[in-house]
Design goal:
Length: about 230
């Protein structure tokens, strides 16, 4: 498997308004640094050092802030979408020439997760492996079932898709092009028995609202203070 990863960063951040009216959501500050830098740092720590970022809403600001990635110890290339952006599935499909022919990781630009990102891999014949987390209050019914490492629409423990996954490029074969969401294609692959899953019970936040952004800030600052006290 390649060590290429994609951070989805093209969205508008509608629930974050007015914070995202003039600043793309991935550049919102958390504990003194842009959210996307925290994500890239974790990817690099676990060996994912070739990064693709898709650009849509205020994308030039992201390119200016991150450059070629050398400051963060990675190599960054950009997939231009313009506006409106291409949604999750369409955005990944557009970036496939940069991601290559081997499986790659994708991380939503508005999540924070302390999972070990080197432990997510594809089983032979699978099209995807999803990192699943305990259901938060804003998604109490979960997204998928998980039983013995296999993801299904029904059955098993109900969990929430974290926005972190590893995908085989074949998952996007014969996709419609243009803007389309990834979730229906993941459900189709799950029905075919070709999606694995890993349950992470640690820290995960969908940083989709100002309140959750503040919660993450508090958690990270508290963690930093704890490290200094040790």
């Amino acid at each position: 498997m390649s060590r290429r990863a994609m951070v989805l960063a093209a969205g508008r951040g509608q629930r974050m308004r007015p914070l995202t009216d003039q600043c793309p959501k991935p550049l919102l500050s958390v504990a003194g640094r842009p959210l996307i830098e925290h994500q890239i740092e974790r990817l690099a720590y676990f060996g994912w050092r070739e990064i693709v970022i898709n650009l849509g809403w205020l994308g030039d600001q992201i390119r200016t802030a991150l450059g070629d990635g050398s400051r963060l110890g990675v190599t960054i290339r950009y997939s231009e979408e313009g506006w409106p952006a291409l949604e999750t599935g369409g955005g990944i499909q557009r970036a496939l020439p940069l991601l290559g022919s081997e499986p790659f990781m994708v991380v939503n630009g508005d999540v924070f997760c302390d999972a070990p990102l080197d432990g997510i891999a594809l089983a032979p014949g699978d099209l995807a492996t999803l990192l699943l987390v305990d259901n938060p209050s804003h998604n109490p019914d979960g997204d998928f079932g998980l039983r013995a490492g296999r993801v299904s629409e029904q059955g098993g423990q109900r969990l929430t898709f974290s926005g972190v996954g590893v995908y085989d490029p074949r998952l996007f074969a014969d996709a419609p092009g243009g803007a389309w969401p990834l979730a229906p294609r993941l459900r189709e692959a799950a029905r075919a028995g070709r999606v694995g899953g890993v349950h992470h019970a640690g820290l995960w936040l969908d940083v989709g609202t100002p309140e959750r952004l503040s919660e993450l800030e508090h958690r990270l600052l508290r963690g930093m203070s704890g490290e200094e006290a040790q």
